[in-house]
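Troubleshooting entry. The earlier prediction with nicotinamide-adenine-dinucleotide gave an output that would not parse, so I re-checked the input for stray whitespace and re-submitted. Clean input:
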Amino acid sequence: MKIAVIPGDGIGPDIIRQARKVLNRVSKVYKTAFEFQELPMGGAAIDKFGVPLPEETLKVCKNSDAVLLGAVGGEKWDNLPGHLRPEAGLLGIRKGLGVFANLRPAILFPQLKSASALKEEVLGDGLDIMVVRELTGGIYFGQRGRRTGSFGQEAWDTEAYSASEVERVARVAFEIARKRKKKLMSIDKANVLESSRLWREVVCKVAEEYPDVALEHMYVDNAAMQLIRNPRQFDVIVTTNMFGDILSDEASMLTGSLGMLPSASLGEGKLGLYEPIHGSAPDLAGLNKANPIATILSAAMMLRYSFDREDAAAAVETAVGNVLEQGFRTPDIMQPGMMLVGTEEMGDKITAEIN
Ligand code: NAD
């Protein structure tokens, strides 16, 4: 299995090191050989090559079985023009790899209930929501521009979706729903937007192929409210790029810490891009304080979705649960009576739990 590894900037190298430890352990226990190749992207690539996503990086990623990414960005590069900023590398790699479905699980480990912003009675026995966000279409990639209108300067962006773009992401969501509680919530704004009306039509058409999955629709404004009011009504959510960007951040905060949440971005084949949902946290870089769990859980998603190793993926997730159960916490999830550990120790403890 060829894994392209992009440590990136800030805490990226710190957390990626922990995920590699875990994968090395998985490789021994599950007798799978991983071949890692480290590549530059983001600020690290700008400093060395003048661009956030060097062609060679994209080429190697395309020829790999999976890509594991830390995070990119930092103040140093904030004043560069948009197309040269580290974040342009992120959009470029997603588009370049054709990963159109972004899977963001919002899982609340029962040990961390008190870290959630919601009351315990709303959380019940925990949360496990999977947000499937369309990643390479919609308003983030539509035409945009500036013009002079009758009231002076105007700016415009376009939300556009083709039926085939909706269909392929809907299919990913239905497949995932089928493996979970067989419930899918499609979120749109079909009362106002024409692109949402097409979205809904296509999702309903795909639903005919999945009679075993119960499909429901919800407007995005209501969904934003329902996620706080009664998050346990959701299992799998599918939505557009922009709505998904906002709702998945909201869903993630239900679980307490950014440092806990992984993501996977998938395309047509098995090649996927796996990364924590948080950024490069420059304030913590190199201080042995970052929580590596989001990245380690991203590696677990890689084992599940790109390598079809449910057994190994589940072993990594169980190892994380065990270490939390034993009371070990990085500073971002620290609670009274628990034992404070750094990035490296957290990585070591999780690694040691994989037997
Ligand atoms: P951030 O996610 O980096 O940090 C937000 C807050 O969460 C900070 O207080 C940080 O210390 C904390 N935090 C984040 N990850 C953590 C972890 N693993 N453990 C403990 N605490 C953690 O977001 P930001 O501060 O808005 O952005 C910092 C940089 O990251 C910016 O340059 C931004 O553009 C970039 N960014 C990159 C990505 C990505 O690479 N996918 C995503 C978001 C932001």
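This one parsed fine. Residues 91 and 232 are 31 Å apart (CA to CA).
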